[in-house]
Amino acid sequence: MNQIKKILIANRGEIAIRIMRTCRELDIETVAVYSEADRTSLHVRYAHEAYYIGKAPSSESYLNIDKIIAVAKNCGADAIHPGYGFLSENAEFAKRCTKEGIIFIGPTPEVIVQMGDKIMARDAMIKAGIPIVPGTKGKITTEQEVLDVIQEIGLPIMIKASAGGGGKGMRLIKEKSEVVSAVRAARSEALSSFGDDSVYIEKYITSPHHIEFQVLADEHGNVVHLFERECSVQRRHQKMIEETPSPLMTAKLRDEMGKCAVDATKAVNYVGAGTIEFLVDNDLNYYFLEMNTRLQVEHPITERVTGIDLVKQQIRVAEGHKLEFKQEDLTQRGHSIECRIYAEDPDNNFMPSSGKIYKITEPLGLGVRTDGYVYEGYEIPIHYDPMISKLIVWGNTRDEAIRRMRRALYEYKITGVKTSIMMLERVMNNENFISGNYDTHFIEKNQEQLMSSEANKENLDMVIIAAFIDYLDKIGKTEENTKEFVPAQSRWKKIPYINHF
After folding, report:
1. What is the Cα 255 distance to its own chain's centre?
2. Is pLDDT at 489 greater than 50 in this prediction?
3. In terms of domains, do 163 and 231 share one?
């Protein structure tokens, strides 16, 4: 049994802070790493120690394995938690950690490789008897192979990158005439994004629901699922809103899919926290989509309805402990919804909106949780994902949770950058969402209401307010320059600064 005393978080922003919070509750010291763009980021201040690892581009900092491993060894970290994104599903990183005697809080490199390759993952699920979306068993190399598959399973179909994720390397084919251009475009995008142009085919589910099951497994062979999350509100294959329980789910379907998720996890000898993702059609037929071998962005809603701290469980499993509970011990209580708050402009094709935050008021009150990392005066960098926080609410019922989310979004005020808050408010007032009658095409189907002209007026008001605050800020600085300067006393402890590179 390994007792972890110090963890380096190989990540940034809200997920780094979220991991650190659990570590503080467990009396585990935390180590932050940061790029040039993140010198003033809140995760740097929150950690026990913080170390500079390179310039702003992630390839020179958060994706640089050598630098992160060197910091971990020099500061005496027992373990590394990768969070999500960056190196979280990088098998080489997990392998290097093990080689250097550092505990990687996640699955083995072999499982990361197997489940990270969509073709290998599909093959593993077929062998385990898990239902998959009809399509090819291996990669396709010619346009003629695509035509042969179309002849067998019909149109429409989806071309997908084997090493892909986040909607990259994906093309929908509705007509045979689109085959050549779609395959070439998908392979080209896959190669540039993942260094691998392997693609495969899946039958396109016309009205799919994206439902995932949270799983936990220890090294002693114990596996449980912590129920489902509904993730169908998406734009460009990126999730915006998640909820649990799913409004689509029945008790019978939950039991079947939960067992299926556990069987899939056992089939690959998985250890740690992971997610089995499914597509479900309108007839409640379900198909394995992929496995995420890491903590998910939307994990807080599962924590809220089960009372289980998933990061704590990840750490305990990494230390070699058995799971503290069995499947029959787990229940769902109430309903939880998460809204992802992005610094982006929904009315301009969701373009990222970097810049300085002038004012921020986060919602409070019963059943409200905010996982974020920005503060007044913080300047959002252009180099990373535009998500700045996650707003999580809980209610006894779905109706109460929706009403609470409306209230919380109303209270959430950010000026200086454009955000997705007002669009999320409109989702919470949408009749199709309220009824639970929605699928992954929700944004397109309700675009007129979600992208209303009234939204542009609201955004204009926010721009005017931000400009006025900026004007007052500049006046204040001008007046301050005429006064004697008295340095303020910081409440933050000094951060050790080491630059090994």
Report:
1. 25
2. no
3. no
